[in-house]
Amino acid sequence: MAATELVSALLLFLLICSSDISSGEKTRRPQPCKRLVLYFHDILYNGKNAQNATSAIVASPAWGDKTTLAVPNRFGDVVVFDDPVTLDNNFRSAPVGRAQGFYLYDKKEILTAWFGFSFVFNSTRLKGAINFAGADDIMKNTRDLSVVGGTGDFFMTRGIATLMTDAFEDDRYFRLRVDVKLYECY
Amino acid sequence: MAATELVSALLLFLLICSSDISSGEKTRRPQPCKRLVLYFHDILYNGKNAQNATSAIVASPAWGDKTTLAVPNRFGDVVVFDDPVTLDNNFRSAPVGRAQGFYLYDKKEILTAWFGFSFVFNSTRLKGAINFAGADDIMKNTRDLSVVGGTGDFFMTRGIATLMTDAFEDDRYFRLRVDVKLYECY
Amino acid sequence: MAATELVSALLLFLLICSSDISSGEKTRRPQPCKRLVLYFHDILYNGKNAQNATSAIVASPAWGDKTTLAVPNRFGDVVVFDDPVTLDNNFRSAPVGRAQGFYLYDKKEILTAWFGFSFVFNSTRLKGAINFAGADDIMKNTRDLSVVGGTGDFFMTRGIATLMTDAFEDDRYFRLRVDVKLYECY
């Protein structure tokens, strides 16, 4: 293993040297043309909370089921959600939009997820959607998804969404803080 | 609730004021560099129509199954599809491509969906794919998804796809009109 | 059918003529600003290989199950994966990252798939993720997905990922060569 690791390290070093993004350039990142900090709240269906639940397991691996999170680390569970989006971290605040789409857990060893979803806004003040895709390395303090597009007030936008787990309670409730930094605005 | 709503409204107002896209700018949208209007046709598998079906439920919530749409509002059903794409609204027209990917229903109160799919072209006249992602607020007359990328004749494109439900029959057939407006062309 | 095909052909011809990308322009594609060639390895769970498996069927059509690939052509199977990414085609090489997300098989007549996933890097040399989406026409020698975004060292990138099946063994193992060509770098 040591030998293949060394070869891999060398090849990777060459790979990075041959790329044209130096670490110096990386520090000169542009300023966002638009920025929003929002929260969304996910209450998973567990067979008894149909009234309150905002999400449900819809697919699971052979060893899982749809009312219990799979062991280990929820690997293979796919969850569809329609979560309220709020401006602060209070679940009872009036929602300004909905987070709609899916996430799936994709690693056996630790908790990681992959998201495909939208923030959907439909008020007199804000209309349209921001569309997200990407990997969520849940155990890290912050992690970045891609904003892959937008519609309405967010026409054609692109950017980065930085997630933070703001609450994580007894397998049934989590709250994410999403810092949406848009770098392409029309 | 009134108080939190007021606070939310105020915060949202400030949020929007601080953003650099004014409603004046929004009216100055660019012209598409390329535009296509296409239709696709979805016939859902119901346990008896294996010959004709172009899509199938592959995941459903705990209370659902794979040959019946879940109640209420199909929430949690995930559908994989390979639908013919035509230039007009006639199901029997010769397909010019395929719409391939998935959609999922993601709201308990009304019909809404989330799409991840591609228009795949493979003729002498048109090759490549257009890749879509986004929320579909089905009950609205028109709604916008993002074109998140393209390949072949649609190399690196981005844009907006405006969906209209052109037909919706007895839970088993729907036809969408897709107005693909590309704003970034290479 | 002949008549509708003719009409479709004519309409499609007009459609293409009216678009502003001529075939002459298509040959003047830009050079990538960054390029990586990587491999990823997928071992599907079959009910007996829990130790080695890197992926699992989590959803399937009514006629399928989660330890056997659906017939015909795996249509409707959804697979969640966490696959090692290596710099060469040797499964035992030290991984430089993980490929995480899902693929689904979406055609009854032949093998085709749709991917939503990320290459996730987390080493001292390379950090961040590249996010992919698109259709995989598996029976073709090469096929292109979209790079829809990136984070960390791949901040805001876009591009094309050209897939080649490098190995495909007994329904349980495949290896993909991924030529990632990035055309937008920050």
In the sheet with the most strands of chain A, the strands line up as 1-3-4-5-6-7-8-9
How many strand elements of chain A?
9
Radius of gyration of chain A: 19 Å
The secondary-structure element order of chain A is HHEEEEEEEEE
Terminal-residue CA separation of chain A: 50 Å
Strand content of chain A: over 45%
Q: Number of helix segments of chain A? A: 2
Helix fraction of chain A? 10-25%
The averaged pLDDT of chain A comes out at 90
Q: Biggest interface and its residues per chain?
A: A-C, 49 and 51 residues
Structural category of chain A is: mainly beta
Quaternary structure annotation: homotrimer
Query: Which regions of chain A have little confidence, pLDDT < 50, spanning 5+ residues?
Result: 16-26
The major β-sheet of chain A equals: 8 strands, antiparallel, barrel
Shape of chain A: globular
